[in-house]
Amino acid sequence: MRTTSGIRSRAEEVIARCRKLARFSEDVGGTRRTFLSAPMRKCHREIAAWMKPLGVETRIDPAGNLRGLYPGAESKAPRLLLGSHLDTVPNAGAFDGVLGVVLAVALLESLEGRRLPFGIEVVGFSEEEGVRFGTPFIGSRALTGRLDNELLARQDACGVSVRKAIEDFGLNPQEISQVALEEGALGYIEFHIEQGPVLETLNRPLGVVEAIAGQSRLEFIFLGRANHAGTTPMHLRRDAIAGAAEWIIAVEREAQSVPGLVATVGVIEAKPGATNVIAGEARLTLDVRHGSDEVRARAVDDLIRQAEEIAERRGLSVSRNVLLDQQAVPMDSLLVNEIAQAIGKAGCEPHRMVSGAGHDAMILAGRVPSAMVFLRTPGGISHDPAESVRTDDVAKAIECGMHLLEQLASSPTLQGRMHRA
Ligand SMILES: [Zn+2]
After folding, report:
1. C-beta of residue 223 within 8 angstroms of C-beta of residue 318
2. What backbone phi and psi angles, to 5 degrees, belong to 268?
3. How far apart are the CA of 34 and the centre of ligand 1, in A?
4. What is the pLDDT of residue 336?
5. How far is the CA of 58 from the centre of ligand 1 (A)?
6. In this structure, what DSSP letter does residue 331 have?
7. Residue 93 · residue 383 · CB < 8 Å
8. Is 153 helix (H, G, I), strand (E, B) or coil?
């Protein structure tokens, strides 16, 4: 199967399998598969059927994650985790998450029965997108021992709690604590579509994620004075929306001037919100992301200072609330370097990048060395039925994965970790 045509046909099969899984949906005519919904069970069965001929028995753990262990050469060999998530957003594409699980199965197939010094556990996470309960990463949090009672009590739109959903699926929420990874997990590697335009712009099939960006989310409220749009001369106005608009441009300018920084004002609401009334209040959101927490914090401080300066000059006041301050998560440098090398061996120039979006690897990194491989996303389109991957890129990802497994099997550092594991 190491021939180019063999790898290409395996890549075609990976794509066909992703498209098949996309048909297991809660919606007719579109893909939507949320935490432990009925189509998730069909999805599990399908993947289990692909793994059975490889001698891999699958199970669904008490957090609803699909788990299948391909044993290592020795019975007590440590495990390398490979996977991604199986849930989707509404009106989803066929590859976000699912591709990482299907590629993991393809890599096991590529081993053709060979045993490595470590076992490989395929994990299909039950929940990453946060669609059903408004809280993401339910599956991966369980593996890190962070699926607590508060999260289990969260309810979906129908009033069904996470705990009840687990019971309804035939699983036992009392056993959640057993999902937490024990010693013996060497690392976690996730293949995922980039969901952005960077690799495509660089014309590179694969990227290696060095860090998952930290995020700041804030709410800003500019207060001025509402007044008549016809009778209030321009120089006597305290227009909250005009102040907000000036600051939005400042946000854009700040992000453009700092390499790697992204900053977004995604919501603006003005009050009272009438055509003939000067806005007395403007409420905005700010989302700032960067791979370095220091750079992000500096940018946020700068934007706060600019908001205050603009408000003062315009006779407005401005207040703010911090909604989220999430630190960047560096990926494991050993795995990152090995992946970069494997991408090179697959004949591609590796692009080292920061993921602007959160992924299961970000959660797993708190417990095991973790890393990610990104695949170019045509048009940068994701979370949409038009989401796609190129067959050649999937073939390169398989090649990269095969080289990576070989490298890790003979890596002295990993051997060291195995002895400690
Ligand atoms: Zn995803």
Report:
1. yes
2. -140, 130
3. 13
4. 98
5. 22
6. P
7. yes
8. coil
Coil, strand or helix at 330: strand
Tell me the C-alpha distance between 183 and 251, whole Å. Answer: 45
Do the Cβ atoms of 383 and 96 come closer than 8 Å? yes
CA 330 to ligand 1 center in whole angstroms: 18
Query: What is d(CA 195, CA 376) in angstroms, rounded to the nearest whole number?
Result: 8
User: CA-CA distance, 150 to 171, in Å (whole number)?
Assistant: 19
Q: What distance in angstroms lies between residue 127's CA and the mean position of ligand 1's atoms?
A: 10
Per DSSP, 176 falls in state G
Residue 3: pLDDT band with limits 50, 70, 90: confident
CA–centroid distance, residue 261 to ligand 1 (Å): 21
CA 383 to ligand 1 center in whole angstroms:
9
CA of 97 to the centre of ligand 1 (A): 4
Give the whole-angstrom CA distance, residue 124 versus residue 173.
18
Q: How far is the CA of 85 from the centre of ligand 1 (A)?
A: 6
The residues whose Cβ lies within 5 A of ligand 1, an ion, are 96-97
Distance 309 CA to ligand 1 centre (A): 39
Q: Is 32 exposed, middle or buried (0-12, 13-18, 19+ CB in 10 A)?
A: middle
28: number of Cβ within 10 Å: 6
Please write the tens of the pLDDT for every residue from 302-359: 999 999 999 999 999 999 999 999 999 999 999 999 999 999 999 999 999 999 999 9
pLDDT at 2: 65
Distance CA 87, CA 238 (A): 48
Q: CA-to-CA distance for 208 and 320, rounded, in angstroms?
A: 36
Torsion of CA 99, 105, 107, 112, to 10 degrees: -160
> 332 vs 211, 288, 364, 377, 410, CA distance in Å?
9, 24, 11, 24, 18
Ligand 1 centroid–CA 359 distance in Å is 6
Peptide bond into 233 cis (omega under 30): no
